[in-house]
Amino acid sequence: MAERTAERGRRLSPIGARFTRAGGGWGLALALAGAAGACERIPEVEALHPVLARPPDRIEVRELAPGTNLGQALWSAGVGAGDHPALLAAFGEQANARRLRPGTRVSARWTRAPERLVGVEVWTGPDTTVVIEPAGGGESRWSSSTRVAALAVDTVVAAGRIESSLWSAVANLPDLADIPDRERLVWLLDQAFQWRIDFSRQLRPGDTFRFAFELNRRPDGSTHSGALLAAELSVSGSALHALWFSPTGDEQGGWYDMEGESTRRAFLKKPLRLAYISSRFQSRRFHPVLRTWRAHNGIDYAARQGSPIQATARGVVVRRSVSRSYGRVIDLRHANGYRTRYAHLSRWAKGTAVGSTVAQGQVIGYVGMTGLATGPHLHYELHRGGRPVDPLNVDLPAGDPVPAADRERWERERDDRLAILPPRPGPRLARASLASASK
Ligand SMILES: [Zn+2]
């Protein structure tokens, strides 16, 4: 069901090989290589060539063991302690040695006869290597640079039908089997469609999906997924689209539907990153503390004590107080008659005094259990025109559409993106065979 597009989507990354802070280091390295070549060329006697052919360098590769540091890896690779301060200083110009993860590869390279350390490489990320090389005289013996591997970018397309969940449908597509970060694709689909559909509640068996995304291929052949370019969900027979477009023409952009409306909404879907809903919006529920039936005018998110709470939209702090039931509570006023409320906080964040303007996504406080609460959770309310509404079931104002000035380019790119999508999956085989059997 999934296939690689052979020609259409394939292109080379505009990034290509990129070198940062490489000027001095690489220039010197090349100069040194030139000098060595000149020395070797001096005796021009044929028979001497095999003798003068430089023996290959010796390379020791180590992986950072858990709980060890770069110095220990260098030591284990045979680099004497005398070289460590200068090497670590050179490394520190490119990256933070304390952030290196266990499993990080470290290599040290020596020439043979005379044995001389001529380079250290540290794989700081899947695509980046810090290279430390002789600086060629002067006080600092080493210079460093960061090398970014050239990525080839393929476009990969996939289509399928949901049997139980989107997650399992994507994870089990045979043709995505060699893509190691398939779960990221589901996450990207969720990012693109989160405002239109709740994957866990609104997708049904038989709904179909198709999408196209970039696959970055490293020189060593390993891959990781890149941008989600286009996606279509057919939910109960109607199609939802998310098509990537960058109004500014660079890597900043977003997903838009067929009409050029942003798939984003002016409000974040939820005020906490990691939380699950412990109580929904409902007109009547039994209150666990008051032990009476009353309306629940918001959503409760169970989360760890101290989890940061984000403002779901840009707004102004209009209330910051302590109440008996809400505990520490913050109210924000937003455009177009919306307000949000965040209750039971353990503490407020800086910059949230009444009258302050807060940005969408800005941390305004931390999860607690002040007021009437049985455990740490955030009580979140959304009000429109003075009345509480269900944040999960309200048609929220949309993000900005494709700007009028970019309309022509948008329509062209939209059609290109749609064209790379694979065909929609056909009717389910089981159903087809049942139909023919009943004749
Ligand atoms: Zn609540």
How is this structure best described in words?
The chain has 439 residues and is an alpha+beta fold. The strands form four sheets. Strands 14, 17, 18, 19, 20, 21, 22, 23, 24 and 25 form a ten-stranded antiparallel sheet that branches. Strands 1, 2, 9, 10, 11, 12 and 13 form a seven-stranded antiparallel sheet that branches. The longest helix has 18 residues, at 23-40. The protein has helices at 23-40, 49-52, 70-76, 84-92, 166-171, 182-193, 199-202, 407-420, 429-438; strands at 3-4, 11-12, 18-20, 58-63, 105-111, 116-123, 128-134, 142-148, 152-161, 208-217, 223-235, 238-245, 254-256, 276-279, 282-286, 293-296, 299-302, 308-310, 315-323, 327-333, 338-348, 357-358, 363-367, 377-384, 387-389. The protein folds into three domains: 1-17 and 149-264 and 402-425, Roll (Nuclear Transport Factor 2, Chain: A); 19-147, Nuclear Transport Factor 2, Chain: A (Roll), CATH 3.10.450.350; 276-393, Glucose Permease (Domain IIA) (Distorted Sandwich). It is 19% helix and 34% strand. The radius of gyration is 29 Å and the shape is globular. The chain binds zinc ion. Zinc ion binds at residues 279, 296, 298, 300, 379.
Sum up the structure in keywords.
439 residues; alpha+beta; Nuclear Transport Factor 2, Chain: A; ten-stranded antiparallel β-sheet; seven-stranded antiparallel β-sheet; disordered N terminus; binds zinc ion
